């Protein structure tokens, strides 16, 4: 469930990680940076600060991918692996950013479901390289095809729901106040994250094309609806007035001809 993290390093771990032979730092005038199994270890010079960021899920898979199941037990094993390989202490790592998500296996390509999404939490979604996303001040919500992103899982039809918290204020208010990495190993935190994801998924509005009474629709209305109900097509339109009018037309057509709104 937990994927991306941004951790600030403190205490004795600041010194021990510098002595880690697995890390090959590249220097520039602003920072030193090393890549390691899906993670980026970064040292900023002014002010001096040390960060570890990237996918803890991918790290657990030796940097290959983050498309398989990742449970609390897997997360705990990944932290132990992180401590052993980078010689750091989980209690000296403060959490500054976090991504929470779940992979769902479907019996059909995820793109079929994604193309039916019209709103996420009442907002029109933006294009994502593999699906859709909406942005808020402190977090973003994504729904995309993990199978399209990871070639090894192309035939697995994996759909991913993901919330990326850019600031911990929203996460602390929505889930639970978290300071250090070890606090994320508490099962109650994972249960609260699962409920949060469930609530977000419930905020997705989809068009059920099979529910439309197409017999009563004119050809022109049907063509307009099927073209402009697709959020990707809507986002391609640069004329804001035309975009707004088409979205309104789609909404009126749907509420007129959809059986489940009666």
Number of strands: 12
Strand order of the largest sheet: 2-3-4-5-1-6-11-10-9-8
Q: Ranges with pLDDT <50 over ≥5 residues?
A: none
Largest sheet: 10 strands, antiparallel
How do the helices and strands follow one another from N- to C-terminus? EHEEEEHHEHEEEEHEHHEHHH
The coarse silhouette is elongated
Mean pLDDT, all residues: 86
Domains counted in the coordinates: how many? 2
Radius of gyration: 22 Å
* Contiguous helical run count: 10
In terms of DSSP E residues, the strand content is 25-35%
| Helical proportion, percent range | 25-40%
Q: Give the oligomeric state of the chains in this entry, treating copies of one chain as homo and distinct chains as hetero.
A: single chain
Structural class: alpha+beta
Q: How far is the first residue's CA from the last residue's CA?
A: 38 Å
Textual characterization of the structure:
Helix content is about 35%, strand content about 30%. The chain has about 260 residues and is an alpha+beta fold. It has two domains: about 1-205, no CATH class; about 205-260, no CATH class. Strands 2-3-4-5-1-6-11-10-9-8 form a ten-stranded antiparallel β-sheet. Strands 7-12 form a two-stranded antiparallel ribbon. Strand 2 (about 25) and strand 3 (about 30-35) form a beta hairpin. Helix 8 crosses helix 10. The two termini are about 40 Å apart. The mean pLDDT is about 85.
What brief labels describe this structure?
262 residues; alpha+beta; ten-stranded antiparallel sheet; two-stranded antiparallel sheet; 35% helix
């Amino acid at each position: 469930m937990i994927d991306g993290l941004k951790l600030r390093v403190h205490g004795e771990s600041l010194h021990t990680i510098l002595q880690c032979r697995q890390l090959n730092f590249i220097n520039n005038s602003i920072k030193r940076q090393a890549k390691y199994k899906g993670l980026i270890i970064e040292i900023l010079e002014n002010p001096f600060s040390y960060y570890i960021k990237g996918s803890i899920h991918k790290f657990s898979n030796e940097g290959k991918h983050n498309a398989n199941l990742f449970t609390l037990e897997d997360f705990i094993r990944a932290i132990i692996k992180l401590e052993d390989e980078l010689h750091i202490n989980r209690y000296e790592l403060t959490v500054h950013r976090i991504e929470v998500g779940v992979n769902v296996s479907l019996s059909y390509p995820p793109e079929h479901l994604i193309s039916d999404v019209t709103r996420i939490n009442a907002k029109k979604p933006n294009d994502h390289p593999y699906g859709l996303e909406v942005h808020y001040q402190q977090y973003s919500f994504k729904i995309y095809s993990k199978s399209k992103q990871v070639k090894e899982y192309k035939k697995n039809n994996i759909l991913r729901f993901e919330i990326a918290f850019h600031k911990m204020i929203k996460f602390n208010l929505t889930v639970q106040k978290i300071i250090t990495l070890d606090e994320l190993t508490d099962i109650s935190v994972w249960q609260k994250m699962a409920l949060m994801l469930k609530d977000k998924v419930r905020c997705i509005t989809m068009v059920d094309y099979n529910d439309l009474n197409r017999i009563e629709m004119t050809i022109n209305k049907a063509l307009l609806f099927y073209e402009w109900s697709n959020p990707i097509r809507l986002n391609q339109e640069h004329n804001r007035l035309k975009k707004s009018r088409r979205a309104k037309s789609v909404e009126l057509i749907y509420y007129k001809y959809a059986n489940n709104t009666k």
